[in-house]
Write a structure and sequence with these properties.
The protein has about 150 residues and is mainly beta. Helix content is about 15%, strand content about 45%. The protein contains 4 helices and 8 strands, in the order αααβαβββββββ. Strands 1-2-3-4-5-6-7-8 form an 8-stranded antiparallel β-barrel. The termini are far apart.
Length: about 150
């Protein structure tokens, strides 16, 4: 199996950083991605106290906004999430891939606008949608599903 370590600049926006499937279908500056969260709970496994539902239950669509001064990819959602891709790494080979990303997300309802660090692990089949995985932000955890926004499946 061929291992490829992905650079932030090489993988592009949230969706592109997650999956070569989207890179096949979109220019890195135009891709739009639907991000859905499910099976939300506190990181301890206890039922959600409302924090996770507030942050993640409605999902969002992400659009690339360019790079910041540090060269990190910036993404924004239609709901006002400010997302910065701070780290990305992965393995691609033999028709499958895995990816690990770390994001800083400022949620639109955040009073202090402090970023929340979110780590995501996902995998998929090259050229297919959706990409599925798990995520944690130190408070919440759950499953994540990422679709090409033009994919109707």
């Amino acid at each position: 199996m061929k291992k490829t370590t992905a650079s932030i600049a090489g993988l592009g926006i949230l969706a592109l950083a997650i999956s070569p499937v989207f890179a096949d279908n979109h220019d890195a500056t135009q891709g739009k991605t639907a991000v859905e969260f499910s099976n939300l709970s506190l990181v301890t496994g206890q039922p959600d106290d409302g924090t996770c539902k507030t942050r993640y239950s409605d999902g969002y669509s992400a659009v690339h906004k360019g790079k910041n001064d540090d060269g990190h990819q910036q993404v924004e959602s239609e709901k006002g999430h400010d997302i910065l891709i701070t780290e990305t790494d992965g393995t691609v080979g033999e028709g499958i891939f895995t990816i690990t990303n770390t994001y800083e997300i400022v949620f639109p309802d955040s009073e202090d606008k402090a970023p929340v660090e979110v780590t995501m692990f996902a995998s998929g089949v090259t050229g297919e949608s959706p990409v599925v995985g798990v995520f944690s932000d130190g408070t919440c955890r759950g499953h994540i599903t990422i679709h090409d926004a033009t994919d109707k499946s």
